[in-house]
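The aim of this short unit is practical: by the end, you should be able to scan a pair of folded records and say something sensible about each. We start with the first protein, listed as its amino acid sequence and then its structure tokens.
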Amino acid sequence: MFVKSTMIPRHNCFTVQADDTLSKALEILEDKKVDALPVLSGDNYSGIITRYDLYEDFFNSAKLKEDYLKETLVSEVAVRYRERYVQGDEIFEKTLLALKDFPILPVVSESNKFLGIITRFDVLEQFQSAFGMNREGIRIAFTSVETEGRIAKLTDIAHQYHEHIISLVTFDDSDKLVRRIVMKVEKNPNIKKFMDKLESSGFRILHVTED
């Protein structure tokens, strides 16, 4: 999955212009109940302004609140985030760390045109979907020796026992020889036989939960 597949397009985004005052930026932040806004110069990306940075800059300004908001331009505060953006062709998973402590990431074209944003909320929602957290089922955590064809073998066993796979996520263990796997399947009368078959086929079951 790529970033563009979960991007909120420009026409659905709240933005502010670089030459707007902070008074206008704060009005949008509060009215729309968002924590950050992409800053544009016309159609081009110019940075990000966050609620936190606006407050921090105000406390360092030694100005009265009303004077500060009316006299300070958005560009004066947003400059520090000018290099924080993606271009949309990045693998979606790479955005997780970038959004760990930041609410949004602008998506920008090669010519610096603003295309849209991805949000921390959307990233977390996609990972919840990848782990099957939005559907009821049986979650099975197990390990397998890292050999060629193990995932194919796993899905073949699931097919034999008519198990419908909701999600399948794998992790490399620290020694690189063992793969940890978390599979979520729909509840099925064959689940006990399915797990017994996994064990007899070399998959070591660690934990089973129903959610």
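Turning to the second protein, read its sequence before its tokens, just as you did above.
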Amino acid sequence: MNDTINQPLPQAYHAIAEETRQFGFTMPSDVQTCALLRTLAASKPAGRFLELGTGSGLATAWVLDGMDGDATLVSFDHDDALLAIARKYLGHDKRLSLVLSDGAEWVHTNAGQSFDFIFADTWHGKYLLLDEVLAMLRPGGLYIVDDMLPQPNWPEGHQEKAFEFVRRLESRGDLWIAKQHWATGMIIGVKRCI
């Protein structure tokens, strides 16, 4: 088995990827991560989806591609220039709400919301405010993170943060997790129905 994606890419993928490259953003989600996101998104018909860290919208495009017509996705980022790329290519999709916001502010303001699928692709919901974000996950809901294998762009000391994050996930009684050596290293969690 190889790691090549031999299924159609989302319609806007190449345009977003090219504009992201021109912008100089060096931390977009890779194609393998995105393919898994699309596959998992398809398992939540009429679901409520949350993406913490839109970036330029590469992963967003894949999540939307897997969602059905009755699902909705909220995606936020603090960088308006990157969000502008996502708006340009994905803003027409009525299922999507793109929000310019600081992560902590968004999480605190929306604490009462609940979601079937959470992709935490920024510090908030992963290294910061983990408990608050997992409180938003419905029973049976998916919690997904990437970049858990050592990356060349990790700052000094980040590996220890990643180990501590994994330890925190493993110690939770309300979440089943599976650690994957796929793409940049993914963890998929499911909120237990207890």
